Amino acid sequence: MHFNYAKFDYACFIVAEFNRGADFHRAKLDKADFRAASFKKVANFWGTLFKVVDFEMAKFEDFTVFEESTLEWAKFKDISFKGAADFTDVVFKLLIFIRTMFEDIAMFKLKDLEELENELEETRAQAGYCHICEQYECKMELERLEKRRELLRDESRFAVFNLVAFKHPENVWFIDFPLSNTSFLLTDISKTMMIANFDGKTLSDKLLEKPQKCDECTRKCEIRYMKRDHILNMFIDIKHTLPEGEALKILQPHLKQETVLAEYRNLRKAFENSRTYQEASNLFVKEMKLLGESLKCDTPSIRRQLEVGIEKLFHTIYGRIFSYGESVFLPVLLMLVIIIGIPVLLSLIFDAKFSNLFVNVTANFFQIPRELGGCEIPVRILGAITLGLLFIAFRRRFERK
Question: Cα angle at 82 between 80 and 85, to 5 degrees?
């Protein structure tokens, strides 16, 4: 069934069966309902422009193409993609996957804005040479590209992968995906390929940190019901709904420090699996910080409170001074401070030669006993701690190589 370059203000395909494939190549659908629809063959939504679309309980039994599609508000819930799923170069404002299974290859990539700008300029240049029979298609293509540019320039986009499963995670790629506005809560992505820059916080962490802001988003969320052909269809009223609020409504039942911590851990493992170690290192630090914040005492026991207090103190020191073993520079800097600073200090106190003190402090630092006027033990303890931290930092580096 072909709907190439078709335009729909409202399209209802509830419980529809597409036995010989469905082709919506570069179609424009303002509101589309594909709930419980069945796609027996290839489902082609290449370049399709959706304003609001619902694929809840739909069945994709073959190759599914959403490449170059624009999914302003899209929901995929209780779905299984039995064939490969291609979400390459997509543009979206709110993209939701809930209880979804990907049984084959899956690719997720956000369209590059600069590349889109070049495509738009080329299309504008070619539009003046379109034949009369092609002018309709040229006009639709310009509308599509301009809408995609508008959405890409607006950075308030959100993606939610909640309770999503990947049967073959080694065949799943996330490339240049906006991870700081994405939630992978209760979704195991640890073995997927993650090729993207990430130095911020996940969407889940942002929502967890600012509950008062989230409550405001929730209050602004409104659902409008539209009655068409005696069928009650639910669509989101975009004018009165914030995407962050919609994301919160989905994630709130599972939004806890433990689940966000697990999300960071899975994301860090995905970066390590993809050999992008700088992002993995940053995520490990965030993971450890969140772990330290989760240390709480739920009992009135003084002993337990003391244990938690000491643990949090050491956790804070380890994080702020040594960056949780992720920094090689900080232990080396501390080593130089000890080896140079202590001889300088002792030479001023005891009026001794700096060169002799430097040799003795260096020897004790590396656990070689030398006379140091009673300061041997403190220097050896500091040396053991610093060398241990340096060993941890180097081991992390070599393990990731």
Answer: 90
Residue pair 51/148 in contact (Cβ under 8 Å)? The answer is no
Give long-range contacts, CB 8 A cutoff, 24+ apart: 282-290. 282/198, 282/199, 283/198, 284/324, 284/326, 285/319, 285/323, 285/324, 285/326, 286/201, 286/205, 287/261, 288/315, 288/319, 288/324, 289/319, 290/205, 290/257, 290/260, 290/261, 290/264
Q: For residue 97, name the pLDDT band (cuts at 50, 70, 90).
A: very high
273 contacts 194 by C-beta, under 8 angstroms = yes
The Cα 195–Cα 107 span in angstroms is 11
316, part of any domain: no
> Which residue segment(s) compose the domain that 387 sits in?
326-401
User: Does residue 61 lie within any of the structural domains?
Assistant: yes
Question: Which residues lie across from 101 on neighbouring strands?
Answer: 80, 165
E strand or H helix at 225, and its extent? strand 223-228
C-beta separation of 302 from 360 below 8 A: no
In this structure, is the dihedral angle defined by the CA atoms of residues 314, 204, 109 and 39, taken in order, positive or negative? positive
Mean pLDDT of 168-182: 93
* Same-domain status, 96 and 237: yes
Question: Is the domain of 266 the same as that of 362?
Answer: no
Give pLDDT, residue 13: 95
Place of tokens 């889940």: 204
The three-class DSSP label of residue 387 is helix
Closest listed residue to residue 252, CA positions, set 183, 158, 157: 183
Both tokens assigned to 357 = 């003190």
Task: Specify the number of domains making up the chain.
Answer: 2
β-strand 223-228 against 231-236: which pairing, if any? Answer: antiparallel
Task: Give a yes or no: residue 373 inside a domain.
Answer: yes
Q: Is residue 203 part of a domain?
A: yes
